Amino acid sequence: MIDKTNENSEVYPSTILTLDDDFALIRSFNEGSEAAFRTLINRHKEKVRNLIFLTLGSADMVDDISQEVFIIVYRKLKSFRFESQFTTWLYSVTINKCRDHLRKVKIRQLFTPISHDDDKDIPYDGEEKGDFDVQEIVRAAVAKLPEKFRVAIILRDFEGLSYQEIAEMLNSEVGTIKSRVFRGREALKKMLEPMRKELL
């Protein structure tokens, strides 16, 4: 498995910092360097894990899905065309895996009895001011957005990608992405408005 490494095995130089070096690592891996692939994983694994966590709104499946993402990357990296940044391709793989997971969850829910305990709102009761985690509240609100708005918001506002990068990643038009980000932000404002004073 790709996550099992030998401590005494070859280690690719850790001083590689620029985006161009992603291409160098990919070429090295395609020439047979497993160490180059491990370095590539180490450079991007936290971003992938964070993207999964934000997209799903839960930490439960982060480890499993991130493992699946890098298995796919390992298998398909030889077909990478160097026509866009590696991160654009990597995030696309990650988003697709998250969507697969969410689709499976929706299918399972169709066969699961509805529980009143599942009808939970943003974790704030309006009384214990200061006794809550702002980041958790925002994440909970983002998790309630429709998928197309949620993904656009996460990539734009959490990951800081450009509209063009997001459009390429999601095979969409820049105008469509801008619209989704705008509508997603408006929806978030409405959800968070009741606690605006506490969040600011």
What can be said about this structure in brief?
This protein is mostly helical. It is built from nine helices and no strands.
Instruction: Give the quaternary arrangement of the chains.
Output: single chain
CATH superfamily of the largest domain: RNA polymerase sigma factor, region 2, helix turn helix motif
Point out poorly predicted stretches: 1-17, 113-131
CATH topology (fold) name of the largest domain: Rna Polymerase Sigma Factor, Chain: A
Order of helices and strands: HHHHHHHHH
Largest sheet: none
Helix content: 55-70%
What would the principal axes of the Cα set say about the shape? Answer: globular
Give the termini distance in whole angstroms.
Answer: 45 Å
Structural class: mainly alpha
Number of helices: 9
Q: What Rg do the Cα atoms give?
A: 19 Å
CATH architecture classification of the largest domain: Orthogonal Bundle
CATH class category of the largest domain: Mainly Alpha
* Beta strand count: 0
Instruction: Indicate the mean pLDDT.
Output: 78
| % residues in beta strands | under 5%
Total discrete domains: 2
